[in-house]
Design goal:
The chain has ten helices and twelve strands. The protein has helices at about 35-45, 85-90, 105-115, 140-165, 170-175, 195-200, 205-220, 240-245, 250-260, 275-285, and strands at about 1-5, 15, 60-65, 70-80, 95-100, 125, 135, 185-190, 225, 235, 295-300, 320. The chain has a five-stranded mixed beta sheet.
């Protein structure tokens, strides 16, 4: 097969007889950088680029539980490029909360994007269809050229967001122009992961979502779930000291967990303040923002549904805290 045939760009045409892999060769340097896609994906999956929390790629298990029916419930904190969030959010079996462009100050986003912008690890070359088969990888002069073009876009977005901020425009709008260059932090919980992994760990998936899916599955494979008996709790971000605090009820612990999951909106999910965490959850309930209450759950062997609410996206043997709240399905401001 022939790859790298865009000679106007300076790439050499190269034939790999008998090969079924794909790659790219650039002609403006002497590196002869040809990387089969399968090898490149394996290399990408092994790279962890996180420099500090909420930057780069990472996946870590926050809470991991299994009930007497053998049903596993896992919460992860993950970070990936913001522009694949829409693809990630198509998976309805996943409960998720994430960093918010409406909540994080523009100045804070500008600092992060100037220091740690998202830059593609490889630039896919255009072809018909949704999946690329040819890529320009680091080590080529052509990659440097494309990276510089990408960063020019970042610089223009930074200039625009700064001007909007200085003009008094609210962060919920000013931050939007920065999103293609952001890393994005998500708290995600589920019992059923197979469809997500089957679709996203695939040569047909966008490389960025393929990479974070591989990292998520590896984090889960390395984690040993804690056995939770019927009536016990799955409580992300609740610490041993919280459990040992005799002044806290089980209801308090659920609110603490939900409040800390919600705090990812401001990237404060790892900050611990019991009174603020409980108050945050109570405010969410009052205002009808129930999604953070989907992460804490009770191992429920009764298969009953609280208050007649419909089944959640979890296996029926795990009852989301959300389903314990009267009127959680339809918000009214009464």
């Amino acid at each position: 097969m022939v790859v790298g045939n865009r000679t106007a760009m300076g790439w050499r045409s190269t034939v790999r007889s008998g090969a079924t892999s794909y790659g790219i060769v650039c002609g403006d340097c002497s590196c002869d950088k040809y990387v089969p896609r399968q090898e490149a994906e394996k290399e990408q999956a092994m790279q962890v680029m996180a420099v500090e929390p909420n930057t780069g790629y990472y996946a870590k298990v926050v809470a991991d539980s299994v009930n007497p029916d053998g049903v596993r419930l896992t919460t992860l904190e993950i970070c990936f490029p913001r522009f694949i969030l829409a693809e990630f959010n198509t998976h309805r079996m996943l409960s998720r909360n994430s960093a918010s462009s409406r909540a994080i100050p523009v100045a804070k986003q500008l600092e992060r994007i100037n220091k740690y912008p998202f830059v593609p690890e490889a630039f896919p070359m255009n072809r018909p269809g949704m999946s690329a088969t040819e890529f320009v990888y680091p080590g080529c002069g052509e990659y440097v050229r494309l990276k510089n073009l990408w960063l020019k876009g970042r610089d223009a977005a930074v200039e625009t967001a700064t001007a909007l901020m200085d003009a008094g425009v609210h962060k919920q709008t000013a931050n939007r122009v920065l999103e293609p260059y952001m890393h994005h932090t998500v708290v995600v919980t589920a019992t059923d992961w197979d469809n997500f992994y089957n679709l996203r760990i695939s040569p047909h998936a966008q490389p960025e979502i393929n990479k974070i899916a591989v990292m998520m599955r590896e984090a889960m494979d390395e984690s040993a779930p804690n056995f939770i008996d019927w009536g016990g709790f799955h409580l992300p971000y609740v610490t041993a000291s919280d459990f040992d605090n005799t002044n806290l009820s089980s209801e308090d612990l659920k609110k603490i967990s939900a409040g800390r999951c919600a705090a990812v909106t401001l990237l404060n999910q790892n900050k611990k303040d019991i009174s603020k965490d409980i108050a945050r959850t109570e405010g969410l309930i009052f205002n009808g923002h129930m999604s953070p209450l989907e992460h804490p759950a009770t191992a429920d062997g009764s298969t009953t549904i609280a208050h007649g609410a419909p089944l959640s996206n979890f296996d029926i043997s795990w009852r989301q805290y959300r389903k314990e709240i009267v009127g959680e399905a339809v918000y009214t401001n009464e």
